[in-house]
Write a structure and sequence with these properties.
Layout (H helix, E strand, L loop, with lengths): L1 H21 L11 E6 L2 E6 L5 E3 L4 H6 L4 E4 L15 H7 L2 E2 L14 H6 L4 E4 L7 H7 L2 E3 L9 H11 L3 H26 L3 E7 L6 E5 L4 H8 L3 E2 L9 E5 L10 E6 L11 H4 L2 H5 L2 E5 H7 L3 H16 L6
Parallel strand pairs: 3-4, 3-6, 4-5, 6-7, 8-10, 8-12, 12-13
Antiparallel strand pairs: 1-2, 8-9, 9-11
């Protein structure tokens, strides 16, 4: 009888162990899974569900939209390369996101704090081509993937979609973009109802080379004005380029009904004293909307910032005020 009881107990244990072995208790996309993706360097194996991402590619906003776990970022001010942009300050503080440099830097280290990145022990580093000089150093710290892009940051939708492909979040990316486009279309319709087909130019007083200006087309605020809000470029606005550097004499070629003018302090400054400025149609009509360089650089090139800045630009027109 005792032998029979022992035999039955043994069978129970065998069946219990077999049941456990046949049940996959590891959640799909666990932290130990890897996936092979294609980036600018070729194929690379990365975590399918990374828990400690260091982003030095300027993609932190997109990663946060996708609810990815970012522990450090190089999405710092385009002016000082250190401070966190205003629209990201609360998110960084709430999530404890460390600052490890600036994603647009072009120094020998790409303006990245490599020592700090190593100390944080990331399980994934996302980088861009501007940091190619330190690719091997980053790859020695953790699996490193380079987003497909040139150095202009115009292809923000393509970068966002590539993240969705890498992390099986394509549906979430498409949903966000659809909502963004719907918001842009609604704002564009309101502006169109108010001003019709009146034309626009987007100018920036160059912060580095005094006396020169950017005139935008597809880059940053230019994309928001022309491609998202569907406003009509005036004569003098270049085509099929990010923008061009011009001098003040170029203003005579611009025949815009409305002008967005960005400068370091959000004013015309010495430009306002120039005869060529005073003779511009938009200036004479009082249709100039002033904005601050740092704000547009920090917000007009990445997803969260674009959504916010799109509304600021639209409101400047609708309220006939400045970009605030």
């Amino acid at each position: 009888m005792k032998k029979f009881a022992m035999l039955m107990l043994g069978l129970v244990l065998v069946f219990a162990l077999a049941a456990c072995a046949g049940t996959d208790t590891t959640p799909q996309g666990s932290v130990s899974d890897t996936v092979t993706v294609t980036d600018m360097k070729g194929e690379v194996a990365i975590p399918a569900n990374p828990q400690r991402i260091v982003d030095v590619a300027g993609l932190t906003e997109e990663l946060l939209i996708l609810d990815m776990k970012v522990i450090a970022s190089a999405n710092t001010s385009m002016f000082d390369g250190v401070s966190v942009p205003k629209h990201l300050a609360t998110l960084f503080a709430e999530r404890g996101i460390e600052v490890v440099g600036n994603y647009s830097g072009s120094s020998s280290t790409g303006d990245l704090n490599l020592e700090k990145i190593a100390e944080l022990k990331p399980d994934l580093i996302i980088m861009n081509i501007r940091h190619e000089k330190v690719y091997e150093q980053l790859a020695a710290i953790a699996p490193t993937v380079m987003i497909d892009d040139d150095i202009s940051y115009v292809n923000w939708r393509g970068r966002f979609k590539q993240l969705g492909q890498w992390f099986d979040k394509e549906a979430a990316v498409e949903k966000w973009l659809a909502d963004y486009d719907a918001k842009a279309a609604e704002l564009a319709a309101r502006i169109r109802d108010m001003i019709g087909d009146e034309t626009f130019a987007v100018l920036e007083a160059n912060s580095v080379h005094f006396g020169s200006y950017y005139i935008y087309r597809s880059g940053g605020p230019g994309e928001l004005v022309y491609d998202e809000l569907k406003l009509t470029p005036s004569a003098g606005v270049p085509e099929n380029v990010w923008g061009e550097v011009v001098d003040a004499e170029y203003f005579s070629l611009i025949d815009a009904d409305h002008i967005f003018f960005f400068s370091d302090d959000g004013r015309a400054g010495d430009t306002g004293d120039l005869a060529v400025w005073k003779n511009m149609k938009a200036v004479k009509a009082g249709n100039v909307y002033f904005g601050i360089n740092e704000d547009q650089y920090n917000m007009a090139f990445t997803a969260m910032g674009k959504e916010l800045y799109l509304e600021k630009l639209a409101n400047a027109i609708l309220n006939h005020g400045n970009v605030e």
